[in-house]
Amino acid sequence: GYQQGQGGVIRCESSKGRRNRCYLGVTTGVTLERQLSRAQCVLDKSWGWDRDGIWVDDGCRAEFVVR
To answer: For residues 14 and 58, what is the distance between their CA atoms, to the nearest angstrom?
Structure first.
């Protein structure tokens, strides 16, 4: 889903181990705030971010802080 915001917390979830992308507006940085899944959320392995938003994979579910 598309979530707009001037920064703040965004939840992004990989369901059934599938890759998912959470679209943001312009993103200057993302940090993992709180892991919600049993599966590990590892930067550049099971989650990451780019200009388009956050992606999660391998069952990573977490809340991220967006700047």
So the answer is: 7
